[in-house]
Amino acid sequence: MTTLLEKSKRLRTAHQAGFALLFSIAGPAWAQAVESSPATLWYGGPILTMAGDRPNMVDAVVERDGKIVYAGKVAQARKIAGTAAKEQNLGGATLLPGFVDAHSHFAMMMQVASGVDLQDPDHPINDIPSLIAALRTGIQARQIAPGGWVIAWQYDDAKLAEKRHITRADLDAAFPDHKIVLIHFTGHGLVTNSAAMAAAGITDSTPNPPGGITLRDASGKLTGVFFENAAYPVYLKIPPLSPEQRRAALDEAQRRYASNGFTHAPMPMAHQMGIIHGMAHPICRKRRSMPMRHARIAGAGKFLFMPMAMQPLIWPLKALIRLA
Fold it and tell me: Labelling 54: which of 137, 192, 216, 295 has CA 20 to 30 A away?
């Protein structure tokens, strides 16, 4: 029986190598089995398997039904793949196993994917007009009705050409009919419009709370910029996602990881694992939409990065996903 220590050593070795061991090599008996579906044959370039104590190179790989079923010589690969196989010539490019992400926060990527991403590399934001345009696109894409909440993530005022925060006045002029919340990329603050402030019970006469930061204009009016404890009333009003929205956020987060070659993501904080489970478990067990592996790191501490006032978004999503 494999001990916990042995499992830990193997996982540590994989992390040190920087790759996930994805290859499961089938024996001759498999080759004689009836083909369940067309296979894909990859060849024509260096293929790294990471099998064994040292990196191992092969000439071809056969994939069927989402699994690696053979890695070795091209001639044998073609026999196993069958005549109906789709061939992918690498043209000299190198094929690598999926990367093991050593340290990131997958659950936070799901939060980003659930709203408008203000750091989408395909749609860079460099000034207030481009930020407003991104919000408009997000509202249209999600078909958010008037009066609804628009949550945007990874807002970064330092990237704006105006060299200032976008303000409540800017957002009011552009979005008078929606509740707008831009969550700062640090997770320690946000910017809102008047509608979101009103929903949170914040007025110009609301005092600055202990441990909080509120920005005001020359006349003393709130600008809609709140940091630390001052942001809590807004966080508490952000509505929870529906099960379908959670599943969509999970799918999009996995797509982003996979598009960069990552197939294994750690979960260093237990509360984040709660988010993963609540967003994924009941739905994705049925729909089988979790191709990535997610592992909780033993002994991890509490979820301290996100303000504690965001716990209403977290606690309904309790429990853990364990590494299969």
Answer: 295
